[in-house]
Specification:
The chain has helices at about 1-20, 40-50, 55-70, 130-145, 150-160, 165-185, 205-215, 220, 225-235, 240-245, 275-285, 290-295, 300-320, 330, 335-340, 465-475, 485-490, 510-515, and strands spanning about 25-30, 30-35, 80-85, 90-95, 165, 200, 250-255, 255-260, 265, 370-375, 380-385, 395-400, 405, 445-450, 450-455, 490-495, 500-505, 525, 535-540, 545-550, 555-560. The protein is of the alpha+beta class. Strands 1-20-19-15-14-9-8 form a seven-stranded antiparallel sheet. It has a seven-stranded antiparallel sheet with strand order 7-4-3-11-10-2-21. A three-stranded mixed sheet has the order 16-17-18. Helix 18 (about 510-515) links the parallel strand 17 and strand 18. Helix 3 (about 55-70) packs antiparallel against helix 4, helix 5 packs antiparallel against helix 7 (about 205-215) and helix 11 (about 275-285) crosses helix 16. The longest helix has 21 residues, at about 300-320. The protein is globular, with a radius of gyration of 23 Å. The structure holds 6-diazenyl-5-OXO-L-norleucine. The site of 6-diazenyl-5-OXO-L-norleucine has 15 residues, from loops.
């Protein structure tokens, strides 16, 4: 008895650690969508209420984001999706953009071999062959249960009825308006000043969507839309041809899967770097009992930073489109390799990334991609991240077709050693070639615990996507935060080069930063207002779902 009394606090402590945090986000019993806009989450949920599965809901949500969230939702971009069906089957879809047929390695260099400013980021020269429509049609053909008409009609209705501008959206449109005019002229739709509360209607986009509804992928990649798209891009000085469009295909790819303690993590494989890099980070951290270090404590930040530093160094050198380059995945993901790579880590001091500094790289606003997470009433789960790359992509907007075009060509390494807009320094593996896919950081991820669905998670954020996804998983699993708390929690980032830890402006006490500085870490604040904008779902012990919709945006969870 005495022994029991003595052990009681310990038993309670262990039990506390094992009890998952009570939910603080929206809870739904059966099905949920969390996305960047309420309209898109609701349309996705409505499709499931009508008997559609998570795949039907994905098609609806992805297309609804193209209407309600033109900042990143798109017809003119691409993305990645990872799924886990209720029977445990998993898969991944790559609907990433491709380089046009006429692309070549030095296409963004001048005669002296220097990168031409803006050529891979602004206007028609920056546009890669879009993949989104091929992606959603592929998903619908393989796994959809409802007719495309039922899925697309509410989206087309939304485009015709229009979308009310939120405060954040109003600010973003205002911020980029001059660029819209520079790229598209002053009669373009987005030269108009739209303020909070205004309704923007998208009749041209509705017409394009009607063509897709009628003809499936051919409604976009062949025929009238393809002709208009190719001639528009070429008139503006870009490279995409009808042949590029006709040849585009989305590709099913086996996800990257690995265990972290008693979790199994299912995430995107190349041409996204997300899965490989997050796998390396988790495996380097696994031997440590980080729950004991504390959430966002100096020790946790230090361990994570050192793992991320080494993982990003590998990312930038080895990763590219697997259809074009051999990636030594078996070595990069080997436990012994990762243990050896981390063997010089010490809590005493920072490991410098390199002697050579590439100088201060402007950190751009980090929300321009968009992620959504879906779980349906059967337990099928979808994690999808989609993007135009920059805010409103290349800013090139087709008034006739009703959508923005990506500037994804900037995700290639235009010249080895020269950083792209996320400060990522690429190598030969990610050089440009015709029909090659540019390396991505998008990390749509699904997590199992003890064989059951546990979490669906992902985020925008360019190069910070990988660290933001990893930190969200750790916040729930190691530090016992609810899904909503984990999504809202302050985040930090390190990507090997530049050799700095970026912190979100709020949420990290001075003492934490001073402790890290004393060990030789350089800290960058002030240029990174937010790191990621995570939309996630956690399965609670009773099987209901908790949404985590990031407070950093207009993100909304919906469900039933
Ligand atoms: O694929 C990538 O890694 C980038 N094009 C993602 C861009 C992104 O997340 C924009 N948000 N900052």
């Amino acid at each position: 008895m005495r022994r029991l009394i003595f052990l009681l606090p310990l038993i309670l402590l262990v039990n506390c650690r094992q009890q998952p945090a009570p939910p603080t986000g929206l809870v739904a019993e059966k099905a949920m969508v969390v996305s960047a806009r309420e309209e898109a989450s609701k349309i996705g949920v409505e499709i499931m209420r009508q008997g559609g599965n998570a795949f039907d809901a994905m098609v609806a949500t992805e297309l609804a984001l193209a209407v309600a969230y033109p900042y990143a939702g798109n017809l003119g971009g691409g993305g990645f999706m990872v799924y886990r069906k209720s029977n445990g089957d998993i898969g991944g879809l790559d609907y990433r953009e491709k380089a046009p047929l006429s692309a070549h390695k030095d296409m963004y260099l001048d005669s002296l071999g220097n990168v031409v400013p803006n050529m891979s980021t602004v206007g028609a020269t920056a546009v890669g062959v879009p993949g989104t429509i091929a992606g959603v049609i592929e998903v619908h053909q393989k796994f959809g249960t409802l007719p495309l008409r039922i899925i697309m009609e509410p989206v087309i209705a939304l485009a015709n009825k229009g979308v009310v501008v939120t405060e954040k959206q109003g600010e973003r449109l205002e911020k980029h308006r001059n660029q819209f005019v520079e790229v598209n002229g002053d009669s373009t739709k987005f030269s108009t000043v739209y303020k909070m509360g205004d309704t923007i209607k998208y009749p041209a986009l509705a017409t394009t969507l009607e063509k897709i509804l009628l003809h499936g992928r051919d409604g976009f990649y062949k025929g009238e839309v393809a002709q208009k798209l190719a001639s528009f891009i070429q008139e503006q000085g870009g490279y995409i041809t009808e042949e590029d469009l006709a040849q585009y295909e989305a590709k099913w790819r086996a996800p990257i899967t690995f265990d972290y303690k008693d979790l199994r993590i299912i995430t995107m494989s190349p041409p996204s770097s997300g899965g490989v890099t997050i796998n390396q980070i988790f495996k380097m951290m696994e031997p440590y009992n980080i729950a004991r270090f504390g959430h966002n404590s100096p020790k946790t930040i230090q361990l994570f930073t050192e793992a991320a530093r080494r993982a990003y160094a590998d990312r930038n050198f080895f990763l590219g489109d697997p259809d074009f380059v051999d990636i030594p995945l078996d070595v990069l993901l080997d436990d012994a390799y990762l243990a050896a790579r981390f063997s010089d880590f010490s809590f005493e001091k920072a490991t410098p990334s390199e002697e050579v500094s590439y100088g201060a790289v402007e950190v751009v606003e980090s929300m321009e991609t968009t992620h959504y997470s879906i779980v349906d009433s059967e337990g099928n789960a979808i994690s999808a991240t989609t993007t135009l790359n920059g805010a409103y992509g290349s800013k090139l907007y087709s008034d006739e077709l009703g959508f923005f075009f990506n500037n994804e060509m900037d995700d290639f390494s235009a010249k080895p050693g020269v950083p792209n807009m996320y400060g990522l320094i690429g190598a030969e593996a990610n050089s440009i070639a015709p029909q090659k896919r540019m390396l991505s950081s998008m990390t749509p991820t699904i997590v199992e615990k003890e064989g059951q669905l546990y979490m669906v998670v992902g985020t925008p954020g360019g190069s910070t996507i990988i660290t933001a996804v990893a930190q969200t998983i750790l916040s729930v699993y190691e530090f016992n935060l609810s899904m909503q708390e984990a999504v809202n929690a302050p985040r930090f980032h390190h990507q090997w080069l530049p050799d700095v830890i970026k912190f979100e402006e709020e949420g990290f006490p001075e003492a934490v930063k001073t402790a890290l500085q004393s060990k030789g870490y350089e800290i960058l604040e002030g240029r990174t207002p937010v790191i990621g904008k995570v939309d996630a779902i956690r399965v609670l012990p009773n099987g209901s779902l908790e949404g985590g919709a990031d407070k950093r945006g207009d993100d909304t969870a919906a469900g039933f």
